[in-house]
Amino acid sequence: MSARHAQKPRVDGHFEYTFLATVTLILIAVGVVMVFSASWSTAFSGENGSAATGDAYYYLKRELIYAMLGLVLMFGLARYDFTRLRKHAPKLIGLALILLVLVLVIGSSAKGAKRWIALGPLTFQPSELAKLAVVLYVAATMYLRPRLLRDIRSLALPVLGLPMLACLLILAEPDMGTAITVVLTVAGMLIIGGVRTKDMAILGSGVAAAGFLFVAMAPYRMARMTAFINPQADPQDSGFQIIQSLVALGSGGLFGVGIGQSIQKFNYLPEAHTDMILSIIGEETGLMGVLVVVLLFAAIAYMGFRIALKCDNLFGKYTAAGVTSLLVSQAAVNLCAVTGLLPLTGIPLPIISYGGSSLVVILSGIGILLNIAVNPRGKIAAAPQRDLKKIDGGGGGGRNRRPSGSSTGGRRSAQG
Q1: Beta strand pairing status for 108-110 and 113-119?
Q2: N or C: where does the chain have the smaller number of CB atoms within 10 Å of the terminal CB?
Q3: How much of the chain exceeds pLDDT 90, in percent?
Q4: What is the pLDDT of residues 261-307, one digit of tens each?
Q5: What is the mean pLDDT of the segment spanning 322-346?
């Protein structure tokens, strides 16, 4: 009996699949309810600088459309063999870069930025696709060329060249928040890949210096930094949004004023249904509601990294780490920004904030995670320790495992 089980490992990722899918569906439900609560006034009367539509359900209907599309992609990708994505990664990042250039030429302008391409009644944000494309590209490159991770000079262009180009194009829109998300996501993947701490420190210092220069180039970005340090210095302009955010959170108390009863959404708090939706959640459901949201994201983070760490296919491991880092870093930055712990960067709260492109891409990434959890090629918690040498990537259980040479090349190719 034991010999038979050793020859045919049992794939055991259904708990991860069910848990992750359930938490995601709960977050979608929370998002739909809170988007409607936070946006109906703005949609109907055009407050906070938005055009009036006369339809209080305007944002809700669009959110439902994007949610349904995202769910179709999520469950579709959950059935799609994740190993096949490795071959498509170069094409996907190439398409993302083309769209990032195209949006600078023909994109729709709003609030001083060109970030959207109109697709009939809907809009598409190429930078959102770029985030997932970067994850797949970096995962594929790390998988195919593991020796690049040993030295920062080898790492710079082959692994980081195209992601850096994507960040530069995103900054040109300008969209610093998304660029920060990409940087944090790639950093998480490099750490999982075993890049030396010294090299990570050098890369981090370079990125921090470049970020400081970028902020210093624009007065409004410097104003955000000033508002972060002391929002009361300019309470009617640069400090207004964070002050109103804290007012909303404080007004909610422990259990909130009730769903739909927010005062701040009535032309007080800008971007109430997008970047600042957590403030409305805090006002309407109180500290307990905010804690529930935080715990839901913590659950996704735990399960995503659990899938990554237990996956014995290196491409799956890197992809799972990247998707989880993407979602968690975006959520963490948003949570810190609306509570005044970080400067406002315009990063929405994943899954919950209104934003079609972001919702569709995040749900697509979760779909890939679901497939990694149950795909036999990932071998989640399947094989006993003594059989690790037979698993794709080989080389034992160390963090620097890499695809072996000629002895396993044929097997790796067979796995896609």
Answers
A1: antiparallel
A2: N
A3: 52
A4: 999 988 888 888 999 999 999 999 999 999 999 999 999 999 999 99
A5: 91
Tell me which residue has tokens 């995601």: 24
- Give the pLDDT mean for 397-406: 41
pLDDT at residue 381 in the model = 45
What is the tens place of the pLDDT at every residue in 101-152? Answer: 999 988 877 777 788 888 777 788 999 999 999 999 999 999 988 888 887 8
Q: What is the 3-state secondary structure (H, E, C) of the chain?
A: CHHHHHHCCCCCCHHHHHHHHHHHHHHHHHHHHHHHHHHHHHHHHCCCCCCCCCCCCHHHHHHHHHHHHHHHHHHHHHCCCHHHHHHHHHHHHHHHHHHHHHHHHHCEEECCEEEEEEECCEEECHHHHHHHHHHHHHHHHHHHCHHHHHCHHHHHHHHHHHHHHHHHHHHCCCCHHHHHHHHHHHHHHHHHHCCCHHHHHHHHHHHHHHHHHHHHCCHHHHHHHHHHHCHHHCCCCCCHHHHHHHHHHHHHCCCCCCCCCCCCCCCCCCCCCCCCHHHHHHHHHHHHHHHHHHHHHHHHHHHHHHHHHHCCCHHHHHHHHHHHHHHHHHHHHHHHHHCCCCCCCCCCCCCCCCCHHHHHHHHHHHHHHHHHHHCCCCCCCCCCHHHHHHCCCCCCCCCCCCCCCHHHHHHHHHCC
Contact between residue 346 and residue 175 where contact means Cβ atoms under 8 Å apart? yes
Whether residue 225 contacts residue 216, with contact meaning beta carbons closer than 8 Å, is answered with no
What tokens does 409 get?
């090349």
351 close to 28: Cβ distance less than 8 angstroms: yes
pTM: 0.84
The pLDDT value given to residue 46 = 65
AA identity, residue 88: H
State the Cα–Cα distance between residues 408 and 21, nearest whole angstrom. Answer: 34
Asked if residue 284 lies in contact with residue 260, where contact means CB atoms within 8 angstroms, the answer is yes
Q: How far is it, in rounded angstroms, from Cα 249 to Cα 269?
A: 11
Q: Supply the pLDDT for residue 353.
A: 95
